Every structure is written in C-alpha cells, then in structure tokens.
Amino acid sequence: MTDEKAFLASLFEAAVAAADPERALRAALPEAPEGRTVVIGLGKGAAQLARAFETLWEGPLEGVVVTRYGYAAPCARLQVMEAAHPVPDAAGLAASAALFKAVEGLTEKDLVVALVCGGGSALLPAPPDGLTLEDEQALNQALLASGAPIGVMNAIRKHASRIKGGRLAAACAPAKVVSLIVSDVPGDDPAQVASGPTVPDAVDAAAALAMVDAWNIALPERILAHMRSDASAAPKPEDPRFARNEVRVIASARLSLEAAAAKAEAAGFPAVILSDAMEGEARDVGRVHAAMAREVVARGRPFAAPVVMLSGGETTVTLRGKGGRGGRNTEFLLAFAHAIDGVVGIHALAADTDGIDGTEDNAGAFADGTSAARLRAAGGDAMAALSRNDAWGAFDLISDLFAPGPTGTNVNDFRAVLIKAE
C-alpha cells in the first residue's frame, strides 16, 4: 500500500497548499487606513495567518492573535498567545481579555483586520456576568459529547459568551472591521467559523434553545438559565456598528478539494467531489462512502474505476465508550475499513486539514481492504474499537496513522478514496 499511501498523502498536501496563509491573504488585503491598523486573530491557524499578514502588509500594524498550544509561529510585530483546545482554559480567558484590550479606543479612521479560522470557539472563553470559566468548560464538554453538528454547537455557544456572535466586532466600533476568514464549516457561512466573533448572525436565543432540545444536549442548568435571560441576546446583523464592516472567505474546503481533484487528474486518475459540506455521525458517513466504493468495484457505478472520490465537511462523534482515543476522521475511516473488509482495489485517507484529529498528534489514518483483517491479526477488532470510540488505538495497532504535523491552516475534514481498476 506504500504507493497508494504516498499518492493519497499528495492529495492531502495539495488541499492544504490551496489554503496556504500567504497565498490566501495576498488577494484579499484591504486598503490601508488613514489611522491605525490593528490585527486580531484566532484559531488553530491564526499565528501562520498573522505571520503571512506581516509579510504582505507594508504599513505599520499592531495587535494580538490567539492559537492552540503548540501552533504558534514567530511574528515580529504581532503578539501571539496560546490557549487550550478543545476545552478552554485560563490562558484562553487571558487571550480574550487581550483581544478586547487591543481594540480599545479606536476611531472611525482606524482599521481592524480579523484573521479568523477554525478552533476559535474553544480558544476564546469569555463567560458573561454570572458565569465562570468552569461553566464554559462544562458547556464545551457537553457539546463535544452530543454528536450535534458544528452549526448547532456554535449557535449555542454564541448565547453564553461575551466575545462570540459578533460581540468582538461590536467592541471595535467605530473602527471598520475587515474579517478575513478561513472556513472550516460546511457551507462556508462566515458567521459560523469560530462562532463568529466578528460576524453576527440572526439566530436568537430561542432558536438556540430549540436546538438544545432537538439534539437532547445535557447543558448545565446555569447555562440554560443564562440562555433564557435577556442577557444572552447577541447583536443583530443590522446593528449600525457593523455597517462599514466587510467579510471575506479567503480559503475553504471547496477550494482545497478542487486543488486535490486537479492533482489526482494530473496523475492520471479521474476525480469526483462528492460534497464539500458533508455532516453527520462520522461512522455513518464512513459506511456510506464504503457502500459507494463497493458499488464502483462491483458494478462500475455511479463512477467507473479508476477514480478518486473526494469529500469534505465536518462529521461528528457521539461518545459511547470510555478511554478511547481518536477523532472524527479516524472514526470515519475505521467504520469505512470495516465495511470494505476483504474488497480489493480500495484505498482511503481521512484527515483533518489542520494536522490534528481529536486528542492525539495524528491528522487521520489510511485504510484499505486489508485493514480490518490486519487489525484482527494484531489482536484488535474494528467494531469493538468503534464501540469505545478508540479509532486511534485501532490504526496505531496496524501502523496506519497519518501524522504530518500541524499544517498552519484549517479547512475541515479531507477524505480521499482511491478505487483502482482491476
């Protein structure tokens, strides 16, 4: 499988390169202001975006960006802070305070450039009056365990925060805010990326509470009480403080998948993009992809082999077991591997484009029709591992983890299925 692994990894690299920070920013730089230029940034790729912005921006600038521990990059003029992900910590509280401090006292002649990418929801805890960091940690843990899609989780987060849901942009007024966004959400809605600290949306608290009920999310009572109060209201898109602001999505799953498709076709493999916005339970999406791959092998439909099937989006994992390790991409792939057990000619990679899937240091994993059998031979079992959410352990056992390291960007899940003709 060595050649297939190298090929699939090259598609991942093409997808990540399409979201390269300097390349993405170059065509989206705003005009220099008459006054100050203040940069604020947040997300797992924020430091790399900040470093690229420094390289491209010719005038003076200042500001603060916040990224995950271990994801910092050296910047000459901008302060880089680190905090915890996926569960917020005290360093995140300090980072939120630093961002608010950076935008104090601005005038209408000043410009705020917001560099926003995935991961910012957890990196910037800012509990409202009456709530604590512990409350926000409990909120995140409940959301992560719920299996709810990212849009639902972010809609709920916005109503228990002083910084999300456009509130950070409101604090910048009367300065103009230009948000340059690397989208990691299905559909590329900029108000959903990092829970929209600089982009308001129209979802109100009543709608967010309805989502809590619909997904049966066990939120702490203190959070629920706050969401039911007037204090949870977020600024609306028509708020005059946002009138001059601009929002630009500079990189996304769509663009990255198109780059991977071009790479595959240049290598002689026709490519199809199934969707850049897939959601759902990771193991279920894995089984659907496996069914399509088996159909290609058995009947030559809906595509003829050889072919590369590509997809993106953000699946979810409902925690069922204890002690398991992994993330949504490895869980997707373990279910996929089980469903193609014994089928010849199918090879797959599923990975998070930020380089980290879940709690460990891998981006995802590789699988083929021999994966489940090799796992059994090593003393493991795919279904047993799925039952305890231990996809990482399964792929580690057969040495099929994919660990390229942090990539400096984040445009969500990347899935590539190579189906070779006999």
Short description:
38% of the residues lie in helices and 17% in strands.
Structure description:
One of its GO terms (molecular function) is kinase activity. Residues 307-413 form the MOFRL domain. This is Glycerate kinase. By secondary structure, this protein is of the alpha/beta class. 38% of the residues lie in helices and 17% in strands. It has helices at residues 2-18, 21-26, 46-56, 90-102, 120-123, 133-146, 150-157, 167-172, 205-214, 221-227, 253-266, 282-299, 328-339, 371-377, 382-387, 391-397; strands spanning 37-42, 62-68, 79-83, 111-116, 176-182, 246-251, 271-278, 307-313, 346-352, 364-368, 401-402, 413-419. A six-stranded parallel β-sheet has the order 3-2-1-4-5-6, sandwiched between helices. The protein has a six-stranded mixed β-sheet with strand order 7-8-12-9-10-11, sandwiched between helices. β7, α12 (282-299) and β8 (307-313) form a beta-alpha-beta unit. The protein is globular and about 65 Å long.
